[in-house]
Amino acid sequence: MASRDGKTTSPANTRDTVIAWNSNRLYLDRNDPEAGPKHIEREHSLVRIHPATGWKALWVNRSFTKRIVGLDQAGSDVILNYLFSVHEGNIDIQVRFKWTPRTSALWDNRITIHNASWDYEGREPRHGTRVTSLAEEPYFDASAPSRRQALGLDG
């Protein structure tokens, strides 16, 4: 994710090895999808490796990332709120998709945070269907390059 490689990254130089606690809304659990929706909680590295590119990617989301393991809530909130603001406030790492009839959008949830803009009220009906695959478990590899390193942008 671009914010992982930006000039304004986490104030903690150790962010690559930080573990975050994530709490999701009701979803199907990858370990037992036939059991129906349930509340899922997981601990994951704050930086994950994207399996297709092998690059490091910052993996935080205001809706799901609740705290950093090993920090008290106040300290965790300071760092997470900073990281959330990096994602939400930098237009150079955002894509805007304006829906029109018969259009579709597809993205990789492993490296993308999405947020719908509710700007279509009173217009033509809009329908959305979420298709989610059972992906691999997020992991961290200290030897993996960042996107900037892999592309030779870190002079």
TrEMBL record:
- Which keywords does the record carry? Dioxygenase, Iron, Metal-binding, Oxidoreductase
| Pfam family, any one | TauD
Source superkingdom: Eukaryota
Q: What Gene3D superfamilies does UniProt report for this protein, alphabetically?
A: Clavaminate synthase-like
Identify a single GO molecular function assigned to this protein.
Answer: metal ion binding
List cofactor names only: Fe(2+)
Q: Which InterPro entries match?
A: AtsK-like (IPR051323), TauD-like_sf (IPR042098), TauD/TfdA-like (IPR003819)
The UniProt entry's GO CC annotations, sorted and at most eight, read: cytoplasm
Domain annotation TauD/TfdA-like: ranges: 28-132
What family does this chain come from, according to its entry?
Belongs to the TfdA dioxygenase family.
Annotated protein name in UniProt: TauD/TfdA-like domain-containing protein
User: What is the species listed in this Swiss-Prot or TrEMBL entry?
Assistant: Recurvomyces mirabilis
The lineage, from the top, is:
Eukaryota, Fungi, Dikarya, Ascomycota, Pezizomycotina
